């Protein structure tokens, strides 16, 4: 049965309610957001225009950058605008749209990271069959599956959110719409819905993290028979990937695998994976990758 809702809009408290601090938030996050768009756009353009970056690894990296730019766009602009706005409201429909978009592109990033780990595994453990296994058709199919899986995940999130009845308070102690803060406002027992959230978002985050860790263990074990130069190159690539995984999955696991309670540090933790990760990903991949840096120089 679909619950009726009397609340038509929500008030987002943002990161702070201090007027002076809000000005700082506006300036800092505006710069970070613009840098995120610039760097991720530059990576996508570089990969699409460079002949040297035609391998599956860079094909997937371009989609990771696209997901990063879109993921940041789902939350950062609203945070920036609300920092200087007197009326920090978001309509019910806009809230559901933001919930869908943030989970869609966040889940897309999860799946692309898993695909990239699989690509690294095939390149290191099965080098002679790499071109056969990671053909263009397979790469496109993997990306399509990532899009479909992300759509299913985010649709489930919106479905759960639309089951929540809002008949009283409409103040969200957060800077964007997510299920955890929304459940705090619902005039019903949200125990079952929280369990579904844990089995959905929490399970995806935890299982994906474990899959990635296992892939690194297998890769490291297989490197024992490689040359010193080969081990160094493979370890450099895996280290870069591992840094991204820890920065992204750590906060996600913290947020989505616990009871529906809001903590004062939740908003800061959310900043790490909604704004921090999309900003750091292009830096981590480009600063540690000579091929990407050379391709960017040629592009300029």
TrEMBL record:
Keywords: Cell membrane, G-protein coupled receptor, Membrane, Olfaction, Receptor, Sensory transduction, Transducer, Transmembrane, Transmembrane helix. The lineage of its organism: Eukaryota, Metazoa, Chordata, Craniata, Vertebrata. The gene is LOC103210873. The keyword Lipoprotein does not apply. This is Olfactory receptor 4C11-like. It is a multi-pass membrane protein. It comes from the Eukaryota. InterPro entries: GPCR_Rhodpsn, GPCR_Rhodpsn_7TM, Olfact_rcpt, Olfactory_Receptors. GO terms for molecular function: G protein-coupled receptor activity; olfactory receptor activity. Belongs to the G-protein coupled receptor 1 family.
